[in-house]
Write a structure and sequence with these properties.
CATH superfamily of the largest domain: Winged helix-like DNA-binding domain superfamily/Winged helix DNA-binding domain
Strand content: 15-25%
Oligomer: single chain
Number of domains: 2
Number of strands: 5
Shape: elongated
Helix content: 55-70%
CATH class of the largest domain: Mainly Alpha
CATH topology of the largest domain: Arc Repressor Mutant, subunit A
CATH architecture of the largest domain: Orthogonal Bundle
Length: 150
């Protein structure tokens, strides 16, 4: 599966599901409707499943779409709200450290841009990313050895 634009495609999918139409999703994401449509089509081709049944402008999510949504929605929302979550837990962002756990593919393909932006905005925060698999990230989070598990 190509992962270059995967986060954008997953975000477009989640927002389309939440809004009920690609047109409304395009407004939320400040993108054109054809862009949203293409992102979802690309995701469907990569996964080899149909995520929405299309009835003119009306969309109905498929069973496969519901399953994918239940998996990726928490991840997309977590990434989209990483700054708010961090601020809520640590308040002052002028110093400190943040430990993130994630699987290798997430570290390689999803986090670089997020981390780059974070480091620009909060240069005094020491950032540590641990490569974990399975439940290890969750266990680290629950034992206070990590601040965020993706």
């Amino acid at each position: 599966m190509k992962t270059c634009n995967l986060l954008k495609e997953l975000r477009a999918f989640c927002i389309t599901k939440q809004e009920g139409s690609m047109s409304k999703a395009s407004e939320v994401l400040f993108a054109s409707q054809p862009t949203i449509s293409l992102q979802i089509k690309t995701l469907e081709e990569q996964l080899k499943v149909k995520l929405f049944e299309r009835h003119g402008p009306k969309l109905t999510i498929t069973t496969e779409g519901e399953i994918l949504y239940s998996i990726v929605q928490p991840l997309v929302m977590g990434i989209d709200h990483i700054e708010d979550t961090f601020k809520a837990q640590y308040g002052d962002l002028s110093s400190g450290h943040l430990t993130i756990t994630a699987e290798e593919s997430t570290i390689l393909y999803t986090l670089p841009k997020v981390i780059q932006e974070f480091v620009k905005q909060y240069p005094a925060i020491r950032l540590k990313v641990d490569n974990v698999s399975g439940d290890d990230g969750y266990k680290m989070l629950m034992s206070d050895n990590a601040d965020l598990c993706i």
